[in-house]
Amino acid sequence: MSVPRSGAELERWLKRRRWARAAIVYVLMLLFSILFLGPLLFAALSSLKVDPLEYPPTVAIPQLSPANWAAAARQGRAGAGDMWWGGFAPGASVPFEVTYFVPDGTERGEPVFTVPRRRPGGGLGAVLVIDYAADHASVSPPTLVSEAAGTHPAGPEPVGGHFVTYAVRITFDGEGPEVSRLPLDVEAPNRQHRYVSSTLPITRLERLGLVASYNNVAPGVLGFTFNNYRRVFDEARSITTGRSLFASWTVNSFIIAFAKVASTVLFASMAGYALARIRFPGAGLVFMLVLFAQMIPGQVIFISNYLVLRDGIFGLSRLWGQPTLLNSITGVILSGLVGAGSVFIMKQFFESVPREVEEAAMIDGAGQWNRFMRVVLPMARPAIGAVTILTFQGTWNEFFWPLVVLTTPEDIKTLPIGLLTFRNVYAGAGDWGLILAGAVLSALPIIILFVVFQRYFLEGVSYGGSKE
């Protein structure tokens, strides 16, 4: 491509070239973002589905349809007066319709509507005592609402017949507790009756398409859209306390992560400053030990660390009434108060801070501690932000060491170990929606933390006293 000679043509050519380069960079960044965020976005969409294993996968999800949101809101108000989370409460009268296609020449009959005695999933919630909607619900006889002639693409060629719609009402008999779910099964008279549509999308077709099954026909908008997320908190409960295991796992992970972030920022900043600014015998050896500690995998020393926690740090834990630190959050925290990598990051940052800043503070009479706390440490916010993100992410996603230390009871485990429990319990039944919902929830704190602290990665050393 030849370069224009005249000034005006050259300016236009350079402008087009700049725009072309910007477009190329933008497209590449977009492709990389899709590459890295694609799996998370696909998991988030799949977590809304009733069957995440459907093939071929599709993004046309019934849970994201505004028409279904409106229907779910109406059903939730009819069931418990709650358009958001729905339910089935005393005085409820929930309408429901289902449409079938009946081919010409087929004997037409009424479908059978029943409220089954069905648990909301299985696994960890299989042993809990719950209230069943079937113990309080009665279903009215079905009535024919409409009938219209038409064709249905049942095979290679359209089949003639009639579309028939039946309606029932499900009422709450007498008094009783409010139930969170109202399941329903609709059995067609024969297999020639082909299911077409209903008030809410079906959960699954059973018995070769003879039975249309619904997990909840009064869900409310949020209960319909985020059913798997509600199940994450409701179904997995402690047998001893009855509390939500997922909530306990999340709280445990936050406690450990916040404690390790605080201790790491405190000790790493002081150690890094001492190695960077204070001259003392053996400073080089200490720094070499810090570098050496980064090279040792945790799996190499986990047996010795395990024995130390088992004995309560040489018996010191007995001072506060704990003979051992196994199966305790305290043991997990004490075994990782500071990482060698964080000390290295803080040391390298403090060495890049101009010494003139501290010398100016010395002229004003500031001692070593004041110079560190009031002058140097405020300038280290970029490094502290990086250490905070790396420490929180590493602690939040830590799997091996908590798996070794925290074994019983279930309430004491962290979120990654809890997700392993979900996988062991629910994957065998193919219930991946709940597992994906838990995985997406576990990723949210890391995403939020990075969004909050990402600007510190862009700040230079000139932030603070040396900035004009």
Report what the structure shows.
It is a single chain. By secondary structure, the chain is α+β, with helices and mostly antiparallel strands. It has 2 domains: 159 residues, no CATH class; 213 residues, Orthogonal Bundle (MetI-like fold), CATH 1.10.3720. 48% of the residues lie in helices and 12% in strands. It has 16 helices and 9 strands. The strands form 2 sheets. Strands 1, 3, 4, 5 and 7 form a 5-stranded antiparallel β-sheet that branches. β8 and β9 form a beta hairpin. α10 packs antiparallel against α13 and α15 packs antiparallel against α16.
Summarize the helices and strands and which ones pair or pack.
Layout: H1 7-46, H2 66-80, E1 93-103, E2 112-114, E3 137-139, E4 143-152, E5 159-172, E6 184-187, E7 194-198, E8 204-206, E9 211-214, H3 221-225, H4 227-234, H5 245-277, H6 283-294, H7 298-310, H8 312-315, H9 329-334, H10 340-352, H11 355-363, H12 368-379, H13 381-396, H14 400-405, H15 415-426, H16 432-453
Antiparallel strand pairs: 1-5, 1-7, 2-6, 3-5, 4-5, 6-9, 8-9
Helix pairs in contact: 1-16, 4-16, 5-10, 5-13, 5-15, 6-10, 10-13, 11-12, 13-16, 15-16
